[in-house]
Every structure is written in C-alpha cells, then in structure tokens.
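Supplementary material to the annual report.
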Amino acid sequence: MSDGPQVGFYLHPASPLHDTGWGHPEHQGRLRALASTVGKDLLTLHGHVTQEEPGEATEDDLLRVHTKAHVERIRAACARAVDEDRVVPVDTDTKASPATWEAVLGSSGAAIQACDAVAEGRLRRAFVATRPPGHHATPDRAMGFCLANHVAVAARWLQAAGHAERVLVVDWDVHHGNGTQDIFYEDPAVFFLSVHQSPHYPGTGGADETGRGAGEGSTLNVPLPGGVSLERYRSSFTQALDRAWDAARPDFVLVSSGFDCLAGDPLGDFPLEPADLHAMTGEVVERAEASCDGRVVVLLEGGYAPARLGAGSVAVIRALADLDPPD
Ligand SMILES: [Zn+2]
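Predicted assembly:
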C-alpha cells in the first residue's frame, strides 16, 4: 500500500463498444485485451492504482480544439450510424458506429477528469484508455482511426480551467501525431514532442517542422527509420525529452502513448519492449517530479497487437505508480 493519492485508471464503458469491424486493426478487442491484462496485474497494482468512473466531455470541450463544422460532421456521422444501426465511414480508414459518439465524448471526458483529479491532487498521476484514438484528428478532419483529439482537448481544458499555462505533450506512438501538431503549431504554450517512424503514415513530422509564428520552436519532431536499433531509439528519445523539457518548461505533462512502437506491432517497425516503455515513462515522471509536482497523465493512442498493448499498458501504469516493471 502507498500513502497518499493513487494513480487513476480511466476507461469509459462506451469505448470498447466503438465498432470498426473485426477486419479493422483498431478493433474492439484492443481495449478488452488492455482491461484484462491490467486486471490480471491487480495483485501488484492494488493499493497503488484506482479505477475511476469517467463521465462525458461536452461539445464545448471539443470546440476548444476542433471547428464547429468538424464537430457537427462527426456527430452527424455517429447519429447516422445509430439511425441505420451500422458502421458508417467517416474517412477512408476512420469509422463511426452506434456507440462512437458516446465513446468519443467519454474518452475526451475521461482525459479531462484525469487532468482535473491530478491537477487538484486527488490522484497522483493517471492512465486513460481512450478509444477511438485521437492524435491524428486535426482541427477540421477525422483521419487515421481518430475523430476527436483527446490529448489536445485535455491540454486546452487544463489551460481553460486555470490548472496549467504551459503543457508538454510527449507522443511516442509509432505514427506522427499530425493532428496534435496542427492544433498547436502556432501556439507557444503547448509544446509538442513526437518520436515516430519515418517514412510512414501519415507522411508528416519531418525534423524541419518546428512550429510557426509565435509557436516557432515549440514543436520537436524526431523521425526515425523503421528497424532503428533500440540503443539509437532510446538515446534519441532521452535527448529529445531533455530538449523539449528545457524549451517547454511545463506545468503539466500529457503523454500520447501509442503501443504500436512495441516490437511486433502489425503497423510499425520499432524495437521497443514493455520494459522500455516502463523506463521511458519513468524518465517523464522523474522530470515532472523535479519541475511540475509530478503531474503526468498518459493517454492511449494506437497499438494493434492486443496482447502487446496489454503488456505495454501494465508497464506504463506500473511506472506511473513507481512500481517495478513486470517480469
Ligand atoms: Zn499509431
């Protein structure tokens, strides 16, 4: 048992019901695998991690990040999925099903509530199992399985609520978080660090993309080739994290944790193991402890090998709770 606030685990009940079809890589089994693997680790997590019941975000929360036209478009697609009781395409690889609107609002809502609880000290840190994922959603476009950008919604909410002026978003999904980059590209108050495979989907995230206008210098992209060595990945990550931290001087840190950076993912070619994600989470937590009261909230993005997604999540959650990595 630990003294003081625990680490929160959030998973909105609508998120596993978001239906893309079983042939789709971002399928319903992902969250079932995640929840069951975390459940099997309860003997260790008990007393350190607490499950929280999330509510939904409001449309106003989404509108801090997305255009009115975008929110209306995705809401209409979700409403059509309900009316016709089927899966409706939103973009070439992005779908809406009858449970999707609730899953989108529930995931953004969970991210907001996690940030609120951590900012107010009720929780120490938090892990939010969002689904559908968010980091490819731009202000005006759903793409790459993402409809609303939960990490961006959380960052903007932290600022609107007066909990943070400066936010650092660390994105280690194997794909570049183009949506998050777009949203904050001209904003000096939200620093975006992405370490991703390149060349790869969605084709953005070059090292020369560093922000624009007042936001110049507040985006840091670290593109690495598929098949990169573990040693090079880990040293690149640590160096980039130091650079980002110095430039961002964050009050609050959000992590876009895609587990498709793990070896064996069908949509990526990076060499990481769950123990690496445990160590990388530890690097984030250590810096946060030194500079912003340890305020870190981790959000799920991609990860398409369900068993690896589960193992990776346990590793990250254990690191958030200052527990040893799994064997
Ligand atoms: Zn991804």
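The chain is about 40% helix and 15% strand.
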